[in-house]
Amino acid sequence: MNVKPNPSSSGSTGDGSLLPTLVRASAGTGKTYRLTARLLRILLQGASPETILATTFTRKAAGEILERVLLSLAQAADEDDPEALESLRNQVGIPTLPRSVCLQLIDTLLRNIHRLRICTLDSLFSQLARSFPFELGLPPAWRLTDEIEESWLRERAVDSVIATLDRGEMTALLAMLGKGDIKRSISRELLQVVDAAYGIQRLCIDEVWKQLKVPTQPESADITRAAGIMRMAMPKQKRLLTKLESFAEKLELRDFDSLMDDTLVANIGAARRSGGEVLYYRAPFPDGVDEAFDVVYAAAKTKVLSLLNSQNEATGTVIGAYDFHINQLKQSARAVGFEDVAIRLAAEFSRLDPQSLAVRMDGAVDHLLLDEFQDTSPVQWNVLRPFAMRCATVGTGQGDSERAVPKSFFCVGDTKQAIYGWRGGVAEIFEAVADEVPGITEEEQNKSFRSSPVVVEAVNQTFRNLIRHPVCDAADSNDPTDKSMYEATAVRNFARRFPVHSTAKSDLPGHVRLETCRIVEGGDSAARQLACFEDAARIAAEIHAADPRRSIGILTRTNRGVAQLIFMLERMKVEVSQEGGNPLTDSAAVETVLSAIMMADHPGDGRWAFHLSQTPLVEIPGFGPEFVRSMCEDRGIAETVEFLSGKLAPLCDGRETLRLKQLTALALGYETNPAARLRDFVRLVREKRVERPQSAAVRVMTVHQSKGLEFDAVILPELDGALTRTRSGCVPDIENPGDAPRGLSRYLGSKSWHYLPLNWQRAFGMQAEGAMTEAMCLLYVAMTRARQSLRMVIQPASKAAFENRTSSSLIFHALESDQDPTTGQTVLYESGTPTWMNRGERISDDHHDAQVSVETVSIRFRES
Ligand SMILES: Nc1ncnc2c1ncn2[C@@H]1O[C@H](COP(=O)(O)OP(=O)(O)OP(=O)(O)O)[C@@H](O)[C@H]1O
Fold it and tell me: pTM here?
């Protein structure tokens, strides 16, 4: 098999060659389609499967790519489906592609499916780690942790940190961490510090927490003199006089704490930055106090920065101790997390040349295809870079002239969908690839193959008109201490860079509506949010009743919202499923088995025996704590779970039986853990989300979980919260995107940014800008999941409230609604037809259809 493409025919994908290519593809414009086309083309030209590496971020996405590859080939190989062959020819840009080649390729692929690497980055990295165990310092017979084990190990490491410090050291440390306040429980405080800072500190140099420069406190004599000047000053206004006297007293008592958040101190800072006069309630002070003001400001600044500095240093101490203990724990458990693997690989690969990499990996990767590239973290890029450089350097490498298919590099992504900043994703790396990878060609795709014209128009209008929101007014403020300037810049840049989307689905009927929910008299924000959820549930039920085959996605911001909506829909008897699944404890039968295990582990605690006395398990002869414990000891947890489940299963419906089977599967997996304890297994079951295999027509999930999915109708009921949340985490000072931070600091409220040195003001500002950009990305992902119908339900509020930084107000301003947002149950914007579901094509769950078809076609193929 060796088919050459027609160079003049680029196919509908524009992918006429295998030149190094970077594709910026907007939502629904066919990233997966494009990547699959490229992969097929490489295979059809004769490259062997083991030379190809395609990576993405989720197992589901990797499965989808593989499915599409197999399905396209299988359908094209089918004599009864001439259109499929034509469509594949068009997709890969090979107009003369013979059916026999498709047949031959699918045969090869089905026999060598294990050689074709279409995988997640995590799975690639663990494969790579197996080739470099010594260089990476991995323990012998190491294994990967899952997120639940990671969280146990993390808690144990924090306990070890606490155990090694004496009482005095711990009190001092906590006081520093809390800037003088000791509020929480010790372990909660330390866990919070670890969550906020460990991931990022691992990428940095040792002194990273010591980069904030703290000025020295003004001389004592200067402070006394400044107090004197203030006492002598005689402003005419009483308010100014009182203020100066209060400042003088604070200086005399050396009480700088209460100066830190004082408005006048902030005004002094603002006046010094602008070169203007110091004002208080718009009134100027008499001449001669300026020198004293500078002393007050310096004293407050020193106090703020030294507190922050102590907090930073204490954080560094905690993280250092935590790093030591977590490594020890992991080393003795021979356990390694995905993050550990990635960090060690990145360090090792920066030393290795691509050729030795190929040798060590038992064969070279000649074709690299990277999906969702905007979510790549700097560490991940450091591991991928040598592969990228090797694949992008065509014609100069060893053996290049003998290769049937020249090496190739392809990456695709959308910086408008970069919603994983908190997980380390740095969208700017996507931009940097264009400069780093030699000879790369850049392309843009903005034509949606998903959404109806009314949905695309609403998306265009929303994002291109973001600047209509009053929040953008601050973009020109030019004040590096002003958080709203950074946020406004983020919104404005998003709008400016937003490309106009078009759609290939020009005839697809659609409907978009922005509406308010009912007015909730006297309710708090939770009650108002609930009213939006009620409307969302009602809308979903109505669409589902009108056409039960339509897929409907209700997308929330929070997990709590998901739970509330599931509860409402189930009460309305609408069959609903939750993306990512629930813990198995949503089943009464599973709870019964867990009670039996807890009873065995805690025989003195009567709660478990009481619960079990109401269940059929008590009918087992000899049943009791000893019975279950000895069964666990003799036969293991999995067999015990299976035995107990078997006793309950005959009394269960299909849903409960499935959950019991999933519980047994979880127990089987858990048993492989050498440190397995009964109570930890119960905890695992309570925490781990397990999906049901079949999804319902109505699906509820967070916007993050909806990434990569599409629905006939999308309902967005949680658009009213603040766009960004104040982070208690830590702020990196980064010179260039993708670089390791040169400094780290704990968070400081934006009102105090003016005390920071300029580089730190920028660092804090960049973090605020990034958070706002991510909020825009989240809204974009949410709105673009819709094929035909997009329904947005928001809370009625005063016009002033519509100036707040919320998604609802951004959409309201951008869609230029002239309706009154203060009234309840009002349609603020509507376009298209509410009866869209009666017309046009129906697209059901593609993923499921594709899976069924791949299986059917491959069975048919094998039979023939
Ligand atoms: N060139 C094309 N011709 C026909 N259909 C296409 C083409 N590209 C994509 N599609 C279809 O359009 C839909 C969206 O494609 P896909 O899921 O690849 O988009 P995407 O860019 O990954 O979207 P998102 O970034 O929003 O997840 C799918 O149903 C896909 O089959």
Answer: 0.87
